Structure formats: structure tokens, C-alpha cells
Amino acid sequence: MTEALVFERDLVRFGAARVASGWRPGAGGGVGPLRHRNDVEPLELPGPDWVRLAPRLSGICGSDLSAVDGRSSRWFEAIVSMPFVPGHEVVADLDGRRVVVEPVLGCVTRGIEPVCGACAAGHLGNCEHLAHGCLDAGLQTGFCCDTGGGWSTDMVAHPSQLHDVPDEHDDAAAVMIEPAACATHGALAAGVQPDDAVAVIGAGTMGLGVVAALARWTPPRHLVVAAKHEHQTAWAHELAGPAGCTTVEPAELVRAARRVTASMILGDGAHARTTGGLDVTIDCVGSADSLRAALAMTRPRGRVVMVGMPGVTTVDLTPLWQREISVTGAYTYGTQVLGGQSIRTFDLAAELVAAAGLGRLVTATYPLDRAAEAIAHAGGAGRRGAVKIAFAPATSESRSTSR
Amino acid sequence: MSPTTPSSPARRNRARTAPRPGLVLEVDRSTPPVLLHHGEQLRLEKLPAGRSRIIYPPEPLEPIEHPDAAIRRALLEPIDSDPLPALLFAGMKLTIAFDDVSLPLPPMRRPDVRQRVIEAVLDLAAEAGVDDVHLIAALALHRRMTEAELRHAVGDRVYDAFAPRGQLYNHDAEDPDGLVLLGETRHGEEVQISKRAAESDLIVYVNLNLVSMDGGWKSTATGLSGYQALRHHHNVKTMRHSTSFMDRDNSELHASNWRQGEVLRSAGINVFQIETTVNNDLYGDGPMAVLAKREWEWTVRDRATFMGARAGLDRMGPPARRKVLPRWRAPYGLTSVQAGEVEAVHKVTTENVYRQQMVAVEGQTDVLLFGLPYISPYNVDSIMNPILVHCLGLGYFFNMYRGKPLVREGGVLILSHPTTPEFHPVHHPSYIDFFEEVLADTTDPELIEQRYEKRYAEDEWYRHLYRTGHAYHGVHPFYMWYWGAHALAHLGGVIIVGGDPATVRRLGYRPASTLADALEMATDIVGPQPSLTYFKNPPLVMADVS
Asked: B residues 440-499 near A, CB within 8 Å?
């Protein structure tokens, strides 16, 4: 038997989580469909190549929080299978090796041949077969009933998903490789040019990761970061590196965009917008407010990149139409083209984590049996001075450690 | 009594005695709690006995009984100038410039003294057959006045006669075709002025001197000018060398304006300066009169009135208070009017300002206390934002001295004000960015000047809002910050009582919940048992510190 946090199909608890999280993000961890269990049957290996992992650390991501709080989009219903064990940011033990998991369940992991066009091109996140092959539906490890996830003491993975952790990375650094890969993919998807003025909305794990990635791979002329909390502001300045950045409160974004682009503001209140604006806005929040701000301050024919998971949002898209703004999504990772070379995003991410010291963003770890506390901490991370919260499955019944 | 002269405390005083001069009261145990303005609210504070003193303003001077006659006499019997009728002739270009909405504070009851003077000038111009007359609100980089404000200043008759024909308007310091460069002073300061004014045969400047900083060459050299010229004296260096800018003889601000005035004169610009002073009768006879009374003279009725006013203001939210308070119109009485040559006129004017406001004070203090009111020159019908709190406290009030600052070098200034991070989005757009961007970086006036001033001054959006809306110029918050530069260099610390803590810290100051806390905090800087001076203002008062 293994210990795991299991996400079960339970409409009553799902509704309770939705109500509770409306009051306080992360409250779904106590009343929602996530259950702590010590009696989970070990998973069968889905195929002959598959291996069994013992998670060491597994992060709590925004999409996990959204699921636990009952706020996920129904879009996922066809590419998720229940019950599942969450946890797709994973560093684990494998026969004495430390590995991180690249969680996307594409054609190769599913034993599908020939692989789809996206997988063939290395764009794993765009795989067309997320509900087919030898696995049940699941866009990633951590959302599939056949693979388990990092919020457990036992899970399975295909060798193609595994990356050895360099010795110089401690577990905290290793668990940041997956989110750093998302951030790297998002930053590079923005196609930032050296003379661009760019904004990053949000300074949680993803926003800070994007700031670090921009600073490392494609530093813009001017970078504005919207951060709600003091520690986020300090991190943004540190991770922006020598080029620096301007940090502002979210409500001041449009004014800040105007300042750095020497444009004007038209309209007021919810309809205030810059006449020109930023070349690129990278939205790492994914809320209606953040998308509205992005559309208000991105220049005509500029680009908005959605890195934060948006869910169901209501936004006036008139500016998108009238200003011919491109809005593009940036989901997970795969292969990037950088300096004319194709490189796996995970390799770039490992490099970024080491160079920027992103392991420092792991603020606290919790054992699985304190899931409600961990989820609440992650839900209120900004307010509580934290960035990344993670589970340390091997430490159940021990005290949590914070730093 | 003249039918146009309101009943006033000065008039009541006359029945009793002459208006009493200002007073320095040593606080002892029997001294009652003293009134402090706290933005849009009022407070009573007990000051420490044995080491505190209170400076009370003089009572309102007796107003001139027949102001219209006095104005006409000033125009006909000017100082160091031909009478105004001798300067007027048919076919001439006449420009009448007048002080803007930043004066007086609060606005005065109708008729505004500017209206009286302008009507008198226009009567003489009409008699001389002058028909090319323009009236310009000399607002420099201040916001444009609204129609209502212009009507209040010049009167409906003048407004309706000139505004519809485009002959009454706000000065536009960003009109590329509306300004002319007249040259440079011997110090290399550029001199710029409204093209219409420069091309006029005569400029008649109609001034209202509320404080001794106003008037003189500052009226035209600043009021009708633009950024290119203003930057030569509206800067950190000048303000630090103006000790104080309320003392013309020790003010580099004035020296620079006077040099620019020389260039105006050399360029053949003819200015007929009309300066007026008013008494400090802010509250009249009504219930508000208690605010001007010395606390130990409060009657039971006064106390009840005060308690009621305080409770009422406390209960109202800021939006309601901002509707009620700006409606107040003060019943000032005219105390002098003089006209003629700029510098000669201004000397007389300054003496008249001092006559109303000056109080002799012996020695400096360790800690100086101001209760800041709801209004300053730059938030008429607007919001006193944090930068204006800085400007009023460390700029205007701190500089209300002659001789030496009231507080010793390295001393502490305590301000009482809510200091919330609120801004009027129409009036103060560049202030918002100044607060968010500039003050987040540094509060050092020199660094601010070096790093940011030019960008804000030349920002197209601010320029657009200044020219077409009612926004202060993009560079204006910088000037407000520089206005406090002398105080910043002089003081050891600034504490704001009752201010929003984050906002106060953004200004570079320390927040305190109560006056007692602030006094305790001040001891960290000036040592135990510091001397305290409360400078009770408004009504306006100026300290002659020996």
C-alpha cells in the first residue's frame, strides 16, 4: 500500500471546494475532492518500459490549486481520468538516481506509432493523443489515473519522461525545473526583441520564472513586472538581472506601460488604455483582470502571451479586434529554437534554475498528511510571503520545514 | 459701513480694541488643548507643559472701507509710474493678466478682488477708447481654470463680455506659437513670456498677494512663462538657496525672477503692476469663527460648535467632506492696493502682507508642529495628495519665516494629516506617476531632478492633458517636491501623525499614530525633553525669528 493524495470524482466535495475557495484560495484542500489516503494500491506498470518512482519533492502548481479548489475548466474533462494523484512537478528517486519528470503524456509514453505531428516536431505539449494509447486520458502525469503523480510515495513514469538531476541541484532546485521549463517556453514564445518594451503580469512562481527566463535568453529594452507583494517585488528585481525591471502594483500597470512607451492614456476606469503601448505582454495570472490589463496596454499589432492558466473568464475582446493584438497561449514545453539550435526546454530550464538560483523560490515543504495546510499555504502564497510550496512525500508524520 | 464690505471680526474688534497682534504663548498646565487641522478633519491636542509654545496669528486687520475707491485711487496715483489713464490710448494692445485659482485660499466671497480691479481697469480702458483687450489667467504650469472659476475671479460681466470672443482665456505654456523667448539674464537664465503679452503696448498685471512669495516680477516672469524659463528658478539649487522663499531679500527664487524682470524691462515690455493684500479673515462671524479663536477664549457655545463640527466631519466620508469644504468662501477684507512700477509696488505690498501675518518669535525650537488643513494652492476643488502634503508642510508652512527657520538645524518637523494615497485623476495625472515611479526610486530632490524631470516635463500625454483638460503640467509635482528641498536639507526628520503608514514611508517620512507617539519618536533625533513649537496656521501667519 502507498500513501497518496487522491483526487476523486465527488460532486458534493467539488461544490464545497468551490464555495470555500471563493472565500479563501486554497480552502478547497480541506473540504474538496482531494483525500489523503494510506491504502492506495500500487499502480501497475502500463508497459514494459515503464519504471516505478519514489517522489522526493512535488510542487503545488496553479493548475493543481485550481483543481483542488473546484475551479478547473470543464475543458479538461476529456483529457483527465479519475481518480488521479496530482503532482506534475516532481523530483524522485529511481534506483539510486535522482530524476525529474517531464510530465506531458505524449505519443511516445502512450506507445502510439507513428507519433503525431506535434510530437514529431518536439512540441510535446501539443500532442494530439492525450486520451489514447496504452494510458487512460491525461494531459500530464498528475492528471491521469494510470500514472499517479508526485503527491504520493509511489508513481510510475516512462523513461522518455525522465531527466537525471545534476549533482549540483538540490531537491528544491530540481523540483523547480518543471515550472522553469513552463516559464522558459512562455518567455521564448513571446519572441521578445532587444528593443521591445515588455510587461510580465504576476510575480508568483510562473511570473518570476518568466522574468528570469527573459533576463537570460531574450532581455527586452524595458521590462515592467506587476507584483502584488513586497517579496515578489524583491525577487523580480533580483531575477531581472543587470538589465533590471520596473515593478508596479497591478493597478498601476497601464500607467507604467504608458510611461515606458511614451504613449498616452485614453479613457478612464475600466476603459483606460494606452494609445500605443507595450510590444509584448506576458500574462502569468490568467484572470479576467490580467487579460483586460494586457489588452489595454499592449500596442496595436502587439502580442499577448497567456502563460497563466486562464479558465473561464469574461473579457471584452473589442481591443483585441480593434488593435489587431495577437493573443497566444504558452502551455508546458517541448523543444525551443534558440540561436538557430533546437534545444529541449527541460535542458534550458535546468540551466536557468542553476544560473538564477530558482531553488530559492521553494519556500516551504509539507508532508502528505498535512495536505490541507499545504494547499492553504499555496493558495495564500503571495500574502504569506511565499512563492513555491511543495510536498515532501517521504516526510509524512514528520514536521514541515520552512525557509 | 460700505455695502460691499462684509461684517468681520476686524470690524467687531474695532468696537472693542484694535486687532490684536500675533502671540507666542508658552504652554503651561492651565493651557487648554489646542486646535489642529488634520486635512479635512479637526483635532484637539494637549501640548506638553513647560517646553511647548504656540504661535498664534494676528487677528484680521481692519479692511479698507471703500475698496473700489481705493482701487481707483491706486490706478490714478500709482507708485513710480504715470497714472494708468496716461498709459492707455486708442488703438493700443492691452493685456490684463491676473492671478489664477491658486489664490486666495480658501477662495474669497464675491466679488473677488480681481474682479473689482479688472472692472476698474476696463472702465479706464473704455474711457480711453482701447478696444483690443485680452485677459489672461497667468497660471504658468498650473491647471487651466474652469469657466466657473474664471467667472468667480473676474465676475460674470467681464467673463460674458470677453470669453465668448476669445479674449479671456487661460495662459498656455505649451503653445508652440504662443510664447516668445526674449533673451537671457546675466546668469544665463532664459526669459520667456506669452506672445500676446509681449506684443502688447501695456500689460496690466492684477495680483492678489496672499503670502509674501507672491507678486513682483514673479507675476509676469513666472505666471506668463513656460518650462524653458521656469526651470531656471524652479529647481533644487534655487530652492535650497531661498531662505526663505517668503523673504524676498533672502530668496534666490525671487532674485532669479527679478533678473528675468530686468530682461523683460530691457526688451521693452511695459508692465503696470497692481497688487492687493487681504486680511486673514477666513471664517467671518458664523459658526466657523471658532476656528480662528484662541482656545482659552472659547465660550461654551464655541466648544459645542467645535465638537459638532469635528464630529460631523469625522462622520462624513472623504467624498462628502470634499463636497462640503470647498464650498466655503472666505470673507476676506481688502487691506491694501497699490499700483505702478513692479518693484516699487511690491515693496509696499510685502510690508502690508507682513503687517497682517508677521509675529516676532524668539529663538528656534527642537520640534516644530503643523496641523495641515484640507487646502493648498494646488488642490482647489481637488484632493490634497501626498505630494501636496509634502509641499504644504515642508514647502509653504516651513518657509513662513524671516530670519531663521522656526526649527533648528537637525530638528524634527511633525505634520498632522491623513496623507492617504489619493489623487485627483484629472488635475494631477503626473503626480500619480511621480508617486508610483519617482518616489518609489528615491526621495532625494537632486536625484529626482537629474533622473526624471526632463522626461516628465516633455511627456506628450501630460502636455496634452495640460493643454486640453484641467491637468497640472507634467513637471509640476517635481516643483512641489523641490519646494520642500530647503526643509529636507535643514531637518533631521519628518513625522506625520495620523498618516497612512505606507504612503508616509513612500514620502521618506515616519508615520506616527498619535502626537504623543510622534513626540516620543522625535526624541530619537533631538534628544529627550525637546522644545516644541506649534505654528498655528491657518489663518496664515509668518514668524520673524530672531
From this structure: 459-461, 464
How far apart CA A34 and CA A13 sit, in angstroms, is 9
The CATH number of B23-56+362-545, from 3.40.50.150, 3.90.226.30, 3.40.50.2300, 3.30.390.10, is 3.90.226.30
Statement: residue B14 has pLDDT above 50 = no
Is it true that B23-56+362-545 and B67-278 share their CATH fold? no
Compute the distance between CA of residue B277 and CA of residue B400 in angstroms, rounded to an integer.
Answer: 17
CATH code assigned to A191-329: 3.40.50.720
Which of B422, B428, B437, B465 best tests the A interface by mutation, with the highest count of A CBs <10 A? Answer: B437
CA dihedral defined by A135, A137, A143, A147, rounded to 10 degrees? -10
Please give the pLDDT value at position B16. 53
Nearest-angstrom CA–CA distance, A386 and A402: 10
Chain A: closest CA distance from residue B473 (Å): 14
In which band, very low, low, confident or very high, does the pLDDT at B5 lie, cut at 50, 70 and 90? very low
Ramachandran category for residue B190: left, alpha or beta (phi over 0 → left; psi -120 to 50 → alpha): beta
pLDDT in tens, B115-137: 999 999 999 999 999 999 999 99
- For the segment A213-242, what is each residue's pLDDT rounded down to a tens digit? 999 999 999 999 999 999 999 999 999 999
**B243-269 tens-digit pLDDT:** 999 999 999 999 999 999 999 999 999
DSSP structural state of residue B139: -
From 3.40.50.300, 3.40.50.2020, 3.40.190.10, 3.40.50.11440, which CATH number describes the B67-278 domain? 3.40.50.11440
Backbone angles phi, psi at A194, to 5 degrees: -60, -25
Question: Nearest CA to CA, how far is B414 from chain A (Å)?
Answer: 28
The pLDDT assigned to A363 comes to 96
Of the pLDDT bands very low, low, confident and very high (cuts 50, 70, 90), residue A267 is: confident
- Helix spans in B275-341 (H): 300-315, 318-324
- What is the value of ipTM here, to two decimals? 0.79
List the Cα angle B299/B300/B301 in 5-degree steps: 85
Q: Do B436 and A258 touch (CB under 8 A)?
A: no
CATH class of A2-177+354-402: alpha beta
Instruction: Residue A257: list chain B partners with CB under 8 A.
Output: none
What are B400-459's pLDDT values in tens digits?
999 999 999 999 999 999 999 999 999 999 999 999 999 999 999 999 999 999 999 999
CA distance A130 to B393: 66
C-alpha distances in Å from residue A335, one per residue of A75, A338, A348, B24:
25, 10, 10, 79
Please state the three-class secondary structure of A79-134 as a single string: HCCCCECCCCCEEEEECCEEEEECCECCCCCCCCCCCCHHHHCCCHHHCCCCCCCC
A23: CB partners within 8 A, 6+ apart: none
- pLDDT of residue B4 exceeding 50, the answer is no
Q: Which residues of A touch B425 (CB under 8 A)?
A: 268
User: Which residue type does B143 have?
Assistant: R
| Average pLDDT of the segment spanning A194-199 | 98
* Contact between B432 and A259 using a beta-carbon 8 Å cutoff: no
Average pLDDT over residues B451-473: 97
Tell me the domain boundaries of chain B.
Answer: 23-56+362-545, 67-278
**Domain boundaries in chain A?**
2-177+354-402, 191-329
Mean pLDDT to the nearest integer, A367-385: 95
Is B432 an interface residue toward A (CB < 8 Å)? yes
Answer whether A264 sits within 8 Å of B464, measured CB to CB: yes
Residues of B with CB below 8 A from A264's CB? 460-461, 464
Determine the average pLDDT of the residues in A273-299. Answer: 96
Q: Please check the confidence at residue A379 and state whether its pLDDT lies above 60.
A: yes
Nearest CB neighbour to B460, from listed A246, A255, A262 = A262
